[in-house]
Structures are given as structure tokens and as C-alpha cells.
UniProtKB/TrEMBL annotation:
Pfam family, one: Trypsin
Molecular-function GO terms, alphabetical: serine-type endopeptidase activity
Database matches in InterPro entries: Peptidase_S1_PA, Peptidase_S1_PA_chymotrypsin, Trypsin_dom, TRYPSIN_SER
Stated name of the protein: Peptidase S1 domain-containing protein
A biological process term (GO) from this entry: proteolysis
Family: Belongs to the peptidase S1 family. CLIP subfamily.
Domain Peptidase S1: 1-81
Key words, A-Z: Disulfide bond
Length: 82
């Protein structure tokens, strides 16, 4: 979607871009730190990301950018063992 809007910025693998091409649904200012969840095939919910940043709110071709939780799985597990 970013490329569709004319951006050439590289988004590292540590992030997930998510949104609707037509816009209308998105995280917005003040939502940082909130969850991005997905429902697995077994109907359980999974925390996939944490709202990080974006350009505008719910604009066409401008997704919200989320920190990818799986990139931090090992660290999270270490912290939870304490």
C-alpha cells in the first residue's frame, strides 16, 4: 500500500503494515501501544503487533505500522520466566 501512495521508504521486517486500500479503518493518534490481534484457524486470538506509527488516520493506501511481536518472542519469554 505504501508504494501505491508513492512512498519508497523501506519498512524493516520488525514492522507489519496493515490497513485498507480504500481507507476508513485504522489506528490513529493516541492509539500507540494498542494491540493488533488476529484470529487463528482454531478460533484463538493472537497478539500479532503493537501499534507503533502511521501517516494520518484511515487514509487510502496509508497503512498503520505495527511492531511485529514475533520478533520479540524470545525476549518476552525470558522476561516472563522471572
Amino acid at each position: 500500500m505504501y508504494r501505491s501512495a508513492g512512498y519508497i521508504e523501506h519498512i524493516p521486517e520488525i514492522f507489519i503494515c496493515a490497513g485498507w486500500k480504500k481507507g476508513g479503518f485504522d489506528s490513529c493518534e493516541g492509539d500507540s501501544g494498542g494491540p493488533m490481534v488476529i484470529q487463528r484457524p482454531d478460533k484463538r486470538w493472537l497478539l500479532a503487533g503493537v501499534i507503533s506509527w502511521g501517516i494520518g488516520c484511515a487514509e487510502p493506501n496509508q497503512p498503520g505500522v505495527y511492531t511485529r511481536i514475533s520478533e520479540f518472542r524470545e525476549w518476552i519469554n525470558q522476561i516472563l520466566q522471572f
